[in-house]
Amino acid sequence: MSFSIQDKPIDPRVLEARLRDDRAGACVTFEGWVRDHNEGEAVTALEYEAHEPIAVAEGEKILAEARERFDVIAIHAEHRVGSLAIGDCAVWVGVSAAHRGAAFDACRYVIDEIKARVPIWKKEHYADGDSGWVNCATRAPAHRAGQAAKVS
Amino acid sequence: MMQVTARYFAAFREQAGKESERVETRARTAGELYGELATRHGFADPRARCKVAINDELRDWDAELADGDVVLFFPPVAGG
User: Fold this and answer.
1) Which residues of chain B have a CB within 8 Å of the CB of A136?
2) Is B79 within 8 Å of A115 when comparing Cβ atoms?
3) I want to staple A30 with a disulfide (CB 3.0 to 4.6 A). Which of A37, A93, A150, B13 is the partner?
């Protein structure tokens, strides 16, 4: 029942086993995968960076909130850092509960809050050789020029 | 004047061209310091979308600074 930052590949089957409990009648897991496109750009790879002390503290806080709000039995989440390839698992959230409603709700709550609150950043590498930090108003001028050219 | 250490992450680190620096400032709050440093380094993200931590604890932008604080500036997060 914890949140962690991982620099090694995430193995969903190993994590899922941690949710096992004889009282559990439902298990909901979420996997976030690296996809090959974002906002019209062809993406070739991703790099994730975290500030681990605060990322773990905030992640644990989110899991504690989920345990308080929803009737869950076990809950666990992990997020990758480092270089990831297309198809890699970047984030994993798993919840077991007696009934499916709490498991779905808690899983959704945790992934949404992780995305909004945990200090993790994603740098996309594009097929044209450019790169950019997602959500930041800081893309390289060359990239913006490329975007404008494609739009016009 | 007081002296604090500013630490930059992700896009902020690349824009500032450094991971951290010692800063002499008259800023009273974390938000005022962000204003100064955003001007110096060209940070374009509005404060409301960013986060700040003082001595490894997330704080509000109106948190007051003390001499010797380590102030961490987080650009908009993008986990998941």
Assistant:
1) 10-11, 45, 75-76, 78
2) yes
3) A93
pLDDT of residue A137: 82
Q: Does the pLDDT at position B30 exceed 90?
A: yes
Q: Is ipTM over 0.85?
A: yes
pTM recorded for the entire structure? 0.90
How many CB pairs below 8 A link A and B?
A: 77
Alpha carbon distance B48, A2 (integer Å): 29
Residue A134 contacts B where some CB pair is shorter than 8 Å: yes
Nearest to A27 by CA among A48, A39, A13: A13
Q: Report yes or no: A99 and A25 within 8 Å, Cβ to Cβ.
A: yes
User: Which residues 6+ apart lie within 8 Å of A77 measured at CB?
Assistant: A3, A4, A59, A62, A63, A91, A92, A93, A94, A110, A111, A114
